[in-house]
Amino acid sequence: MHITRTTAAATLAAALIASATACGGGSSTDGSGNGSPKELTYWASNQGASLEADKATLTPELKKFEKQTGIKVKLEVIPWSDLLNRILAAATSGQGPDVLNIGNTWSASLQATGALRPFDAKAFDAIGGKDRFVSSALGATGAEGKDPAAVPLYSLAYGLYYNKKMFADAGIANPPATWDELVADGKKLTKGGKYGLAVEGGNLSENVHHAFVFGKQHGADFFDASGKPTFTTPEAVAAVKQYIDFIAKDKIAAPGNAEYAANQSVADFATGKAAMLLWQAAGSSLKSHGMKPEDYGVAQVPFQAAGASGDTAVNSMVAGINLAVFKKTDNVDGALKFVKFMTSDDEQKLLNGTYGSLPPVKAAQSDPAFATPDLKVLADALANSAAPLPQVANESQFETAVGTAMKDLFADAAAGKPVTTESVKAALEKAQQQMPAS
Amino acid sequence: MTATVPPVRHSSKTPSPGGRRAAGGRAPLSRLRLPARLRRASLPYVLLLPALALELLIHLVPMVVGVVMSFKELTQFFISDWSAAPWKGLDNYRVAVDFNAPVGEDLLKSFLVTCEFTVLAVGLSWLFGTAAAILMQDAFRGRGLLRAVFLVPYALPVYAAVITWSFMFQRDTGMINHVIHDQLHLTDGRPFWLIGDNSFYALVTVSVWRQWPFAFLCLMAGLQNIPRELYEAAAMDGAGIWQQIRRITLPSLRPVNQVLVLVLFLWTFNDFNTPYVLFGRAAPDAADLISIHIYQSSFVTWNFGSGSAMSVLLLLFLLVVTVLYLLATSLRRKDA
Amino acid sequence: MPDVRSPMAAPRSFVWTRRIVLTVLTAFALAPVFVMVVSSLKPLQDVQGPFRWFPSGFTLRPYADIWHTVPLARYFVNSLLVAGGATLCSVAVAIFAAYAVSRYDFKGRRFFSVTILSTQMFPGILFLLPLFLIFVNLGNATGIALYGSRGGLILTYLTFSLPFSIWMLAGYFDSIPKDLDEAAMVDGCGPLGALFRVVVPAAVPGIVAVCVYAFMTAWGEVLFASVMTNDTTRTLAVGLQGYATQTDVYWNQVMAASLVVSVPVVAGFLLLQRYLVAGLTAGAVK
After folding, report:
1. Which parts of A164-226 are beta strand (E)?
2. Three-class SS of residue A326?
3. Does B170 touch chain A (CB under 8 A)?
4. Tens digits of per-residue pLDDT, A200-257?
5. C-alpha atoms less than 13 angstroms from C-alpha of B176 in its C-beta half-sphere
6. Which neighbouring-strand residues pair with A298?
7. DSSP-derived secondary structure letter, A181
8. How much is the average pLDDT of A56-82?
9. Structural contact between residues A375 and A300, judged by C-beta atoms closer than 8 angstroms
């Protein structure tokens, strides 16, 4: 036993010392063990049809960057299912990439961890100035009053996609401009196994995005000025209920949509099983499902009443991907150079063109390539009627809690259980209680 | 038959011949007397060293760190420098076991769901495994092939198998509903399997599918150890095949079952892979297993202190159950 | 496998029970395999539509596409390296430990056995993040990259299977007569010589059984792999998720890829199953 104990004690001591040194948080490691300032590690999110397709898109650009600056970029494309965990692990250990993509709704949450390097005035100077970016996209880069945690890279907004032929067959001339019209049209279109609308009821993020927009239209914010969750206000309840009612009360969406979490609603729309879809830049997905661009139209997402204005004139969240610099990078200059490169007009045009998104850089967005009818609708929404999701530290918990509550409500609705104001309120109450007290 | 689990197994044994007795008795063979004896005495520890070191590094030390974390307020504000995270004492535990508040209530609910799930899944796995093992004890045509077929679920990679099940459980396009609704007309509407209350049964199904071949394998091996004479004697007494199964086969399997049930229990209770692949990071309430619940409480809500506290509670529970189980089954063995 | 029970005419009730139960179990065991095969031969539109027993349009394209959608070959090699490495190390370590447990009556044996077994009940989620931190810091302190490397994953997985492996092998070693290694030691072998010249050769079925178990444990793990790997070291369990992309879930490719990577493993498993049963027979279930 003697030897065992001694060895045990020694191993324990060694490991504890090792983790104690880490606790200082000062270990100056950088991404994946690259110590040379002539190299950067870049974590890209999955934007295209596959991880390999993304790699094929980005690699030539990174070569271009290497040629310009002499800095080699090590690329890793990370699936969305892993990205947040990897970032969390990187934040915890200090061992991460130099530059990384984040979902723009995570900006404030990740900002709170202190793992990202704030973009102060100097950093913005280094990448060509803050005013190059579309202002609504800059609204989704971190908490108000703080230096942004990231800069916009790809922008998106929601549009109402509709099937032209199905609309014509049902005798509907124009896409709906209000929700009442959408429900009325939806009822006309719902027949013979086809439905008016497709929703992605099992997808937490989609649910939250729509809850947020409906909330804005009802005058509800999900957080008060001090950052406390206010999920159970009558406005918030009405907003969530209105979305759930597409299955529960209006029955214009198929009950089966309640379990959709893998973009099946896009497939349903593309294959004519549903006549309308609320989505961000669905063009390339629709094409891959065999739907031709001339078969569908894109309109603004409806409002509560025609001619909405002021605070309730919101019909999309500011969607998109941001580019951030990891705080513990050993190569701030190189990282900023890379950010500058990725947000340059040329790269913006090329990359956003490939991914079907909108450039958040003004000069690039005005390029005629982005003047297609559908992208124009989305750009219009982004510029005029899109609002960023709450930029609070608990945003990611909000997405999980409210998104799950809505998924459960959809499950109830699809199973034929009544969805009432009370049951919606109870579900949101529970979601609010799950939020960390802060 | 000796007892089966390490702490119990050697209790009734006389000291092994290779042990200290041998070290003394064969001393003349060694070149130097005293160091040799020392070397002999330390040899078992040296042999155990790699295993111990690895378990310490990968399991025990991280677990100690995990326990430390459970006393801290380790939220997103502190994860990048967690020595700065404030100590919270027992606060994380207090919140976790306050069953009148939402966090504790959810944890308790998740715990009960897990218990129900474990009992059902282990019970069915054991039942299927036993049935198959006993029915295949005699030779018949195609037995070898069937045995291979039954081991396929155990051999398929978890991810591939479970993702296929989730594909089969889809409401509108899955095979399950195609069979029970479209072809057999057993249900009025198309039931949901991946959301709502039925998700519990979907999870049990997949779990049993994955586990029962292991039970089958162990029990099949256990059957090989039953002496042939027992059956011959019973047959001479005029016992039919059903009676032989009841009187000889099942009682003889008891030592196998002691370990098998325990191992299945621990694996099922802690199973993360199956629910995670089947439902993603937000499992429906009816299938909210404790492992997923804790994952949510730490990785999804970024509160690692509270998640760690819940894990420690889970560990304590499993420890108590295991000890009680071993005591109970060993006592029964001694009585018998 | 020898027949244990004396052959006797089974009654009709028994034969019919056997037929029914075994048919149901076969259908249960093979249903997902059938779905995998059929779906992997369908075009994407087909798998996204309602389920049909047989493909309307038969295609082999998914089998060609799987290699370009994700770097499947690399993930496969990684999985083989990680699972194989974990298996070899786990078994090597287990042999020494099991030998000590089986042949020596040393102080602390009970303690060791209990401790080792109890690690089986640690919830993975409890030590995932601490282990990650320790790996990162050991890496910083020693320069050995454990985080993100296959080595780190091998270390982790081998400890997952180690307790059960030690316990199974100790049981198997117990069944090998001690006279054998004593005789070898009288002939001048040291204890280690006896272990490798006598005990290990006699325990091959048990060792194979442990190998299979250790391999399967490492092969399918998802949680640790998702945090501890990167692009170059990602294993299949995580990599297969790549077929669910931002735009689509390529169900047919998921199924095709699952089949392709499963076939060698299942085949190997079935080839070795005889040993597995033999190993379990003498070891674990004694």
Report:
1. 195-198
2. strand
3. yes
4. 999 999 999 999 999 999 998 899 988 899 999 999 999 999 999 999 999 999 999 9
5. 22
6. A161
7. H
8. 92
9. no
Residue A73 corresponds to which tokens in the numbers above?
């970029």
Rounded distance between C-alpha atoms, residue C95 and residue C107, angstroms: 19
Statement: residue B24 has pLDDT above 50: no
CB B134 within 8 A of CB B140: no
- Distance CA(C116)–CA(C126), nearest Å, equals 17
Tokens representing B294 are 């804790």
Q: Compare all CA atoms of chain C with the CA of B249 and give the residue at the minimum distance.
A: C5
Q: Kindly report the backbone phi and psi dihedral angles of residue A323, in degrees, each rounded to the nearest multiple of 5, phi listed first.
A: -115, 125
Give me the pLDDT at residue A287, please: 86
Place of tokens 């009940």: C121
Q: Residue B173: phi, psi to the nearest 5?
A: -125, 10
Q: Do B273 and C254 touch (CB under 8 A)?
A: no
List helix spans (H) across A366-420. Answer: 373-384, 395-414
| The token pair that represents C278 in the structure block | 């033999």
pLDDT of residue A282: 87
Residue C188 gets the label, from left (phi > 0), alpha (psi -120 to 50) or beta, of left
Among residues A115, C97, A134, C177, which one has the least CA distance to residue B81? A115
Average pLDDT of the segment spanning B262-277: 89
- Pairing mode of beta strands A158-163, A274-280: antiparallel
Least confident of A293-307, A320-334, B24-38, B296-310: B24-38
- Two structure tokens written together for A398: 């909000």
Contact A25 B48 (CB under 8 A): no
CB A195 within 8 A of CB A274: yes
Q: What is the mean pLDDT of chain B?
A: 82
3-state secondary structure of B196: coil
Joined together, the tokens standing for residue B102 give 């939402």
Number of neighbours of residue A44 by Cβ within 10 angstroms: 24
C250: left (phi over 0), alpha (psi -120 to 50) or beta: beta
Mean pLDDT, residues B113-133: 96
β-pair partners for A194: A191
Strands A316-317 and A386-387: parallel
**What CA–CA distance (Å, rounded) separates B213 from B125?**
8
Chain A residues close to C145, C-beta within 8 Å: 33
In angstroms, rounded to a whole number, what is the distance separating the alpha carbons of residues B256 and A393?
Answer: 53
Beta strands A296-299; A39-45: pairing state: unpaired
The 3-state DSSP class for residue A410 equals helix
Contact A326, A90 (CB under 8 A): yes
Q: Say yes or no: B129 contacts chain C, CB-CB below 8 A.
A: no
Q: Which amino acid is at C142?
A: T
DSSP B99: T
User: Would you list the DSSP string of C188-209?
Assistant: T--HHHHIIIIIHHHTHHHHHH
pLDDT in the model for residue C179: 85
Which parts of chain C sit beneath pLDDT 50?
A: 1-7, 284-286
Asked if residue C112 lies in contact with residue C119, where contact means CB atoms within 8 angstroms, the answer is no
Contact at 8 Å (CB) between C92 and C169?
A: no
Contacts of B112 (CB under 8 A, 6+ apart): none
Order of strands across the sheet that contains A319-325: A72-78, A39-45, A99-103, A319-325, A151-156
Distances (CA, A) of C186 to A339, B42, B335, C96: 73, 20, 41, 21
Q: Mean of the pLDDT values across residues B232-236?
A: 87
Instruction: Give the DSSP per-residue string, C268-282.
Output: HHHHHHHHHHHHHHH
* C-contacting residues in B 20-59 (Cβ below 8 Å): 20, 22, 26, 29, 40-41, 43-45, 47-48, 50-52, 54-55, 57-59
Burial of A324 (0-12, 13-18, 19+ CB in 10 A): buried
Contacts with C170 (C-beta within 8 Å, 6 or more apart), sequence order = B6, B9, C97, C98, C101, C102, C283
